[in-house]
Amino acid sequence: MNEPRRYGPPPRQPRQYPVVLELLEARANKKLVEEYKPDICDALAHLEASSDINPAMIDLQPEIQWFMRPFLLDFIVELHASFKLQPQTLFRCFNVVDRYCAKRIVFKRHYQLVGCTALWIAAKYEDKKSRVPTLKELSIMCRNAYDEEMFVQMERHILSTLEWALGRPTLEECLQLSVQYFIEDAEGTPQRYTRQNSDGPNSLNSAVTAVTRFLCELSLYHRDFLEFQTSQVAATANVIACSMLQIPNAARQLERMIASLRRQQPSNENSSPEVVGAFLSGFDNGTIDNLRKITLLFAYALKNITDVLSTKYKALGVLQVVQNFIIRNSALTETLGDDFNPSDASMTAVADYFLGLTYVTGPKRNSLSIDNMTPITPPSTSRSIFSEVPSSSPPLHTPGSGQLYAYTPKQISPQIASNFAYYP
């Protein structure tokens, strides 16, 4: 009797690669890339300056609302995991989705089509040919709500809208750059695939990369992160990840950058910003303020982690690290209500505490406590993360009403399909 055909990438036995050879190759690759690193950073900085994601334009969508984004994200994250695609592919996918939604009107019934087509485009851009999902698989994943020709037409429309320009710095590229810059004492190079080995020179990089990647994926769920540069979000996630793992490398490096900035002479306002470390758009006082705002947004986002993201990173041990961090700082995270204002001056000490900084705001980290801190009472006019969502919109984890059109194979949990629903 013939077995039913299984969709997805072909099964593959993991190849046991000698650790010594991997270390030698990593060191050799690092020396080869080091020669071109300034040119690579300059190219990424030029692309980041031309980024065309405007969340204010997405706000003008007549049908798409921000509360629908987590449902699409959960579906795409599990679809991405079931095909075992590169981490870079997921970030490239939503970079394409955001850029497209900022330029074109997307109807609710086509939102899933846009997301799956963007994943298809990103997979062809980043992954091996054998792992790219086929049109038939994409159609089945959507329970045949869209035929194969619709994916092809949507691909043409997305690429023509973006003028065939897919080369934008993603969170994964900036993540790798920030890990290389902030983790100075670690040997080897960051891992594109997170390995679970706890021995060897790359274990520190792997742990920091895994936690940083979790925070970067968490930032995809919220609108406010789109208002900041990609390199700033990735660098902040890296510093917070080091703080979670109690590794002082990133915080000490950031303190040296701030101290060096204070000693520098004011630069010409008309000159273009230079790449400084992991910051592609330069490093100045405005960058420091943005880092603190992003830190507070991350602290707020950690209070609402979706089940899909928790399941994905639980096996890697990342979720336990995050939970320990939340427990250690529960008194501070509870003060971040739905109407907190990241720009409030009274929140500066809280942000520096999360980042692990010691002397930037004046008091030492050990002396920073809730009793010594200014009461955090955000103004009533501050905007919450999802303030644009109507009061009748369903919350983050509540399934919407309507007929389902998301297909759920064995790799995708039924709960995700029930959450990702078609809103007529």
Automatic annotation (TrEMBL):
- Cyclin-like domain ranges (all copies): 74-160
Recorded GO molecular functions are: cyclin-dependent protein serine/threonine kinase regulator activity
The family database entries (Gene3D superfamilies) matched by this protein are listed as: Cyclin-like (1.10.472.10)
Set out the biological process GO terms recorded for this chain's protein. cell cycle G1/S phase transition; cell division; regulation of cell cycle
Please verify whether the record's keywords include Cell division. yes
Disordered: region residues: 379-404
Polar residues composition bias: which ranges?
379-391
Write out the entry's keywords from A to Z.
Cell cycle, Cell division, Cyclin
Keyword Transmembrane tagged? no
Entry's family note: Belongs to the cyclin family.
Q: Which PANTHER family match?
A: CYCLINS
> What's the protein here called?
Cyclin-like domain-containing protein
Organism equals: Meyerozyma guilliermondii (strain ATCC 6260 / CBS 566 / DSM 6381 / JCM 1539 / NBRC 10279 / NRRL Y-324)
